[in-house]
Batch of 2 targets.
Target 1
Amino acid sequence: MKRFPCPCLHTEVELSDEREQHIYAKHPDLLPEHLGRLAQTLADPDEVRVDARFPATRLLSRWFDNLKGGKFVVVLVVSDPPPEGRHWIVTAYIARKLVEGVMEWKRA
């Protein structure tokens, strides 16, 4: 298991071995090569959106000019309610544009 700081959620976010394998299998353009960009997205996102279908899930995204000619890295983080209060990555992917979720925060 890996843990990443996520200041916007005021906590660390977990990436379990199982979820890492899921991302590697479903989104091989992201992992393993761009694990550092996933960490950067969690540490300093450009936008945070709330998933319209799953309100406990946030989509953190960050634009990278030098990723495949300019793309977003999007990381979906599920926040379990207290007392566990666990925050974990369910999936992550590379995207051309952002279309999902309701805007919660955007870098000015």
Target 2
Amino acid sequence: MYKSITLFIVISICLGCFVLVQGKDSFFNLSKQVRIKPGLPMPNFTFPGLDGKMVSLTDFKGKVVFLNIWATWCPPCRDEMPSMERVYQKLKDQDFIILAISIDPSGAEAVTPFVRDYKLSFPILLDKKGKSQNLFGTTGIPESFIIDKHGFLGQKTIGPREWDSPENIEYFQDLIERP
């Protein structure tokens, strides 16, 4: 009887250690995925824009950055784009920028007509090889990261939102006004 209980305890401990080591947010995370959490600095990135010019997060130091990972074939992404454009129009003359990284494998071929049809004016970046998934640890799309003026993550959101809601505008304004 004691051998069975001891064996059960040893197996439970081993299983618990295995789960601990494998967890994405674990201290022992051995994967290449970056752990991104509110309060931590965002990793820098560089992706080409629709115009071919390379764009990096560090280009926007001193601005609040709304970073959105999306694709043209994603219905929730399509749903939130108009509200993102309204936020951009409202805040673009302040220390605020939206960077939308498309993960469409065909790149500009799929994204250019989408941008034209949705009348988007904020910068669109292209990630044809899906590097952003490992870089930001995304699990799906859309995923958005709100980055403060100092490059730290303020908020990570999974799924679509009405970004131009009064609560979100107030949140962005608060970040913009902080020193």
